[in-house]
Specification:
The chain is an all-beta fold. The chain has no helices and 23 strands. The radius of gyration is 15 Å and the shape is globular. The N and C termini lie far apart (39 Å).
Length: 191
């Protein structure tokens, strides 16, 4: 399935995929949707964006830019998430890869919940005052962070809940301008 070059704006939900196997979502704009720009349920082999010019999707001014639930084989590459309440919220989405993506002005940049072994590579997250860059919630173990840039907001990384854990790979990640770089709560682990 190829979903490309569309504009989904001013709806409750911009676009929704359920029980899809193998989809490429490129060059779309999801904006001003009161609930979610793009949501995906019970699916596998989903590529959102890509490395080529024109592959990027834009998620702006939505309640949540991207929401996934029970998704495997998710790749989110080279996209832009701006001014959403939550940029990307991955629930029950194991082994996802987020790379080369920019999050700006979202109250929460990325939220992981019940999502193991997520990898964030070369991701930039800038949050407004009071915001959180990366939330790793209960049941989200084995998160790998490489070459991430976090700036602004109240909290850089929030590890909260049993089974939430993360580790850094390499030494090129940067944290600037937030009130708290890390907050660990409720049996979270940092290594």
């Amino acid at each position: 399935l190829l979903f490309a070059g569309n504009t989904a704006s001013n709806n409750v939900i911009g676009a929704e995929f359920i029980q899809v196997t193998g989809a490429t979502i490129t060059g779309n704009t999801f904006s001003n949707n009161s609930d979610t720009g793009l949501q995906i349920f019970d699916s596998s082999g989903i590529t959102i964006g890509g490395a080529l010019p024109g592959d990027a999707n834009v998620f702006s001014d939505n309640g949540t830019g991207l929401y996934t639930d029970n998704v495997t084989g998710l790749s989110v590459q080279g996209n832009s998430f701006a001014d959403n309440t939550i940029g990307a919220w991955l629930f029950d989405t194991d082994s996802a890869v987020l790379s080369g993506t920019i999050f700006t002005g979202n109250t929460v940049g990325v939220r992981l919940e019940a999502s193991d072994n997520t990898r964030l590579d070369t991701v930039s997250i800038t949050t407004p005052a009071g915001g959180t860059g990366l939330e790793i919630r209960a049941g989200s173990g084995g998160t790998i962070v490489k070459d991430i840039t976090l700036s602004g907001g109240l909290i850089g990384v929030l590890l909260d809940g049993v089974g939430s854990s993360m580790q850094f790979e390499g030494n090129n990640s940067q944290f600037t301008g937030m009130d708290f770089y890390f907050i660990l709560a409720n049996n979270a682990m940092f290594g």
